[in-house]
Amino acid sequence: MSWKTLATTALAGCLFAFAGQAADLRIALQDDPDMLDPAQSRSFVGRIVYASLCDKLVDINENVEFVPMLATDWSTSEDGLKLVMNLREGVKFHDGEPMNAEAVVYTITRNMTLPESRRKSELSSVEKVEATGPLQVTFTLKKPDASLVAQLSDRAGMIVSPKAAEAAGANFGANPVCAGPFKFVERVAQDRIVLEKFADYWDAGNYHVDRVTYVPIPDSTVRLANLRSGDVQLVDRIAATDAATVQGDASLGYAEAVGLGSMGMYVNMANGENGKKPMGQSKALRQAFSMAIDREAINQVVFSGTALAGNQPWPPTSPWYNKDIPVQPRDIEKAKALVKEAGFDRVAVTLKHHNNPVVTQTMQMIQAMVAEAGFDVSLISTEFATLLNNQSTGDYEMTRSDWSGRADPDGNVHQFYHSKGGLNDMKYSNPEVDKLLDAARASSDPATRKASYNAFAAIVTDELPIITFGHQKFLYGFTAKLKGFEAYPDAMIRLRGVTLDN
Amino acid sequence: MHIFIAKRLLVAIPTLLLVSIFVFFLQKLLPGDPVMALAGEERDPVVLAELRERYGFNDPLPVQYVRWVVAAAQGDLGISLRTGQPVLELIAQKLPVTIQLAIMALAIAFCLGVPAGIYAAVRKRRFADHAVNFLALASLSIPNFWLGIMLILLVSVNLQWLPASGYVSPWENLGLSLKTMIMPAVVLGTGLSATLLRHTRSSMMGVLKSDYIRTARAKGLSGRTVVLGHAFRNAVLPVITLTALLFGELLAGAVLTEQIFTIPGFGKLIVDAVFTRDYAVVQGVVLCTATGFILLNLVADVLYVLLNPRLRSQL
Amino acid sequence: MTDAAVPARKGSRAWRSLRRNPSAIVGAVIVIPIILLAVFAPLLPIADPTATSWTAIRLPPSAQYWLGTDEIGRDILSRMIWGARASLLAGVISVAIALVTGVPLGLLAGYFGGWVDMVISRITEALLAMPFLIMAIALAAFLGPSLTNAMIAIGLSAMPIIIRLTRGQVLAVKAEDYVEGARAVGLNHVEIMGRYILPNIVPPIIVQATLTVATAIIAEASLSFLGLGQQAPAPSWGSMLNTAKNFLTQAPTYALFPGLAIFLVVVGFNLLGDGLREALDPREN
Fold first, then answer.
1. Alpha-carbon distance A471 to A131, whole Å?
2. How many interchain CB pairs under 8 A, B with C?
């Protein structure tokens, strides 16, 4: 055997060994993400891909506390008008460019000025951002904004390579270049997104997966079938009704986390003619409607006990939850009495909802429950696109709507309950609520904020522009060979410390 | 012949224009604002207004229509609102997937339908004929999507023989590609095999009645030789013409099948686009499908004329 | 020959041969009981199809619930029977819509020819070139999801086939002697179309209509399956399948029954259509 053949064989052997060790992780997503440009993207599932692709200035931990990521520390000035961030040293983008103050200034400015940017309102409190050192940036604010750090822990704070972004312009999503633990390889729409490990990542030692492929599989039964057959190793997410199956299967692992959002129903209070209907006008009717709902039964029947009954914009497990107003059990007698008190025998209501099966099931339960209290609910299931349009134009009496939740409490309430809120489709207006929400936003003292939110929760659980009835958990199933996976309240899949045995 | 084809192509132009008008205005009538549908949870009125302006949704509809048609005529179908990819690129990505599915379904349909049709024709009005006919009718009557669900339940969930979803390109891994595609192809091919069977049977019956077959039989040739050697050759020609037409139907029929098996093809592309109001994609895909359909019709007509000497002489 | 006698004599002969046709008989045996069940659903001793029970979720078939219960504890058997109404109604009404719109247009195109034919034929071709289900989905989404709108969408999508068929039949009949005769006598267009052409093209249209009922039932189920048909809590087979698909592992029988029901009805109508074709079309025999 010649040296040449020997060398070739040895090399081939090495390659084989290497291929054997390479850990390829396939993750099933619920949907196909939209554009992979942090400035432009909107979809929730897109954020799951970003969790491995693009590092943010700030991250959040499992207790929803802000922790360093690309920024190592930060401080807010006394008057709340300046936020100074110090950046991590030696961080590189996937194209080898250095991540520094200039790059941060470029990215934030891009988020605020790119015509296609969807990040403008998230950064609306920012007057300007400047490099005050090679690795230090200073945000100057128009007015104090306690939620800014939270915004920077999401897409608005994902730093992109200025060189790549400048070259690609609005087309950046076709080939995103960030500073995350994995870099972009390829994308086939509706089929897969492939990332591979970035060797120069600042925390590369803690990442043990070589390649991640995200495959969108909208049907939960099919997702689970793929997990069991080994075609994917991690499923985001499993249906609540499958939780017991996954937990009972020794070859599968299971993880869950209470989300940050809520499930509720909007009541049109002043959004056009429909706001003049009884439900929008009578507080007693809204209270009766809420009392007639057996929140725990919904949890058991629809979510197999995996959800949480709720009544406030954040779950009972949240530090912002007002414990003096706990979730009430169903009280059908009181509900009936309230309907009578409001001067009605039976109340006809139309309620629009998204035509997905879980929502439809929930709404049929609620329809049956409130019928006993005197509500004749006609359900109209619509596609999501139509529902959103109806909601914002006021073409509804009641709608069923969810909010995925934000790390900072402000993100769960200000835009919905504030009379000038961008998502206040109920056109709910209460000067006292406006004052409390503005105060909580302006203060950076947790105790002051908590007091404001407590007072706010007391008002809105009484007036009920949104009838909140529960909080979903995020449920994950994965192969037992996957170790170190943890579920987070923001539903992001973080692969730090995750290993995959062959 | 050239004049015949040229005439047919000329007629196709107004038809395509009509299709473009239909699809454009139909989806403009759809409730829901594409920009808002895309924004999802995060609807910032200022951003929405800006995007609407940017994509020209504020212009009068006829202006938008003309802009689109002129661009389309030059081969530019616009950009997907959702993913930012050019529509042509999306179509180029998805079309091979659906074509693979269609070819496999056709192959299955052919292997089942044609022999069964011949058999039924030979056994005309006997028990076997009735049995085959009933089977054909039954497979025509099974709702595609239900058959798909039942197959997933049985083959993927219970037996775990085949994957329940996904797509692998045949260039990447032929075996795996066939494995993931076989179930959807069966679902799509079932109804088709019945159509093929019926046409083969009636075409075959016509040929078997004809004079030259009687002559052949009279000459003492065996039944097998007559059926397979003579009759089949003549009977299969109209069936091939039909196949060109069926292919167009298949592309359309793939819609639900792809939805159920989560196959990233043409059908899934368009259904998702309708639901997310991704106008450029819906318009582009329907235009493309319609063009394909019209061309296949033309091919079928030309084939029919070419294969039929009597008609050829008339041209 | 008196003009009215032509279709009448043909009709009674067809009726006799229909009664001897095995396909037609089997089809009728399948379809008629289902129609009766659907019509008399309110009188049957079955559970309220919308009555829920939180303690009977996704139960398998039992003595109390013959076909089990659904995701919010409703009796599947009674929902199946009530669901038959949605399916049959959708089948019949959407075909009626297709006939009412398609036959006159086909008549006009075939009878007058020229630019009328040119315009109608191009529109028909354009409609046929768009995938049926995509048209139906877009129309259903445009009109808003409901059973009525699904029927309109299916009807309009099935219309081009009827136009094309009618037109072709008219062209064939137009050349017949009795039509030429009527024209020579000086009858006006409406009289000729109404008294001489229409009665003679009815048989193939009836056959096509029966077969289209079968297609329309599947189309309704498909639209309901995508959430664009019958609205909750009223049952339909397609929407039941849509829900059942989410509980394949937990309640496999739930997905079985609605699909079987659709299959049966569609087989019934297809058999009936085939029988009619053989009875009405002498060329087949």
1. 41
2. 118
